[in-house]
Design goal:
Shape: globular
Radius of gyration: 18 Å
Oligomer: single chain
Strand content: 15-25%
Order of helices and strands: HEEHEHEHHHHEEEEEE
Helix content: 25-40%
Distance between the termini: 32 Å
Number of helices: 7
Largest sheet: 6 strands, antiparallel, barrel
């Protein structure tokens, strides 16, 4: 696995195959292409999925593990109660500031969060937090205020700069007041393009492969391609979990 230069306080950059959850934030609705309207039709999924509305729970927890945990596959695995205690210790720490390497919580018996979450899915779902955490975010105030094209240009530059320093920003993707999308991702790479930037990220709705987000400098706008829950098109991006206000 490739090594990245450390960021603030020795934090390393998010690596998709190592630092993402193996399970998904399940979609509450079933989406189907609507060629006539040029969007998606949706209806309730049956049977009702059990693990939904946790995109911000999973992005927050993924960065808490990135910032505060160390996986040690060579150590013997422990019992369910011990893992529960270790997970709680991790998710009670700050998602904004990484700890010093010597203060990391050791997770024995596994090499990565990806492996840990594949084997201990039910436990992580139970301990990382309920859906209410996706609603009670201190950053939600920002989306109700106007988001200018200049703001989006500054955001794109700041995200690319953070990634160049091996930081891993969490972003809020939103359209307000329609709320056709209200979603969270972690970015882990930025590639300059003739038009602007192409970002790669971990989308907790689609953990099978990295997601792609682009920024068009001319339009001063972010674009998310069509996927299982979004018809594709422009949206606004806000960086979150970065300060006491956000």
């Amino acid at each position: 696995m490739s090594e990245h230069k450390p960021g603030a306080a020795g934090a390393r950059r998010f690596e998709f195959e190592r630092d993402s959850f193996a399970f998904a934030n399940e979609l509450r609705w079933e989406y189907r292409p609507d060629p006539e309207a040029g969007g998606l039709r949706f209806g309730k999924r049956e049977p009702k999925p059990a693990y939904t509305l946790r995109c911000f729970v999973l992005t927050r927890a993924a960065r808490q593990f990135l910032y505060h945990a160390r996986f040690e596959a060579n150590l013997a695995a422990v019992n369910e109660e011990s893992y529960q205690r270790l997970i709680r210790q991790v998710v009670h720490r700050s998602p904004r500031t990484p700890c010093a390497p010597e203060r990391r919580i050791v997770i024995p018996g596994y090499a990565s969060l990806r492996e840990f979450s594949a084997r201990r899915e039910a436990l992580l779902k139970a301990v990382c937090g309920g859906a209410w955490r996706s609603y009670v975010l201190r950053s939600h105030w920002r989306m109700v205020f106007p988001i200018s094209r200049a703001h989006q240009t500054r955001t794109a530059g700041a995200l690319a700069g953070a990634l160049a320093e091996s930081r891993s920003p969490i972003i809020h993707l939103v359209q307000f007041p329609s709320l056709t999308i209200n979603h969270g991702m972690i970015l882990f790479a930025a590639t300059p393009t003739p038009e602007g930037f192409k970002f790669s990220g971990y989308d907790p709705n689609t953990p099978q492969a990295p997601a792609e987000l682009t920024f068009d400098r001319g339009a001063q706008t972010f674009f998310l391609p069509a996927n299982a829950y979004w018809p594709g098109g422009p949206l606004n991006v806000i960086e979150i979990f970065r300060s006491w206000l956000m």
